[in-house]
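Async update (no meeting this week)

Hi team, since we skipped the sync, here's where things stand on the single-chain job. The sequence we agreed to prioritize is pasted below, unchanged from the tracker. I ran it this morning and attached the output directly underneath so nobody has to dig for it. Comments welcome in thread, and please keep replies under the output.
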Amino acid sequence: MATKPLSKDPYNIVITGVGGQGNVMASRVLANILVRNGYYVTIGETFGASQRGGSVMSHIRVSRQCAWSPQIPRGRADIAVSLEPIEAIRVLKKYGNPKINALSNTRPIYPVGVIAGQLTYPSLQEIKESVKELCLSSWFIDATDEAMKLGNPILGNIIMIGALSRIGELPMGRNDFKEVISKSMQEDKLDINLEAFDIGTSIVGQ
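Output:
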């Protein structure tokens, strides 16, 4: 798929999820792809109460002109990528605006309060309706379900990166992804990561 230049500068991306989903890795892969295409990229990260199960959020600021501060101002994100659906709502309420786009995984990860019966987790339909009210365009994909078919649920983060490339908001494609992961992963893991990326692009393309 052909890439295109950013629609604005800086372009602000939020990738969010919970600990253990590979949020940080996804952010690093995306940042390296954009650096490879000649952009300045700054990453800022916040972590919840626990490394596994707590909220994890990465701010990625991309510019052709210069490096920006790592923190995206409130209401100024351009796209939100959520590895966990309810986290999409949290991001959109704080960093969203009428022009933001949202891409979300559909598989929930229930917090302790929900598991203990003290809190209620909204249905996926309720989450979709809330997200649609908070953004310009939204996509929901079954990234974790598809990753489990590949034998490793954490590959959902790579499926999300593939889906993000297909949306067409960022200057990135399959060759960029292949070049980046070839430098950071063992050779025996390359094929399955490329397959995960391709699944992401095909889901959004349907």
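Quick observations from my side:
The domain at 11-205 is CATH 3.40.920.10 (Pyruvate-ferredoxin Oxidoreductase; domain 3).
Residues 150 and 192 are 8 Å apart (CA to CA).
Reply here if anything looks off.
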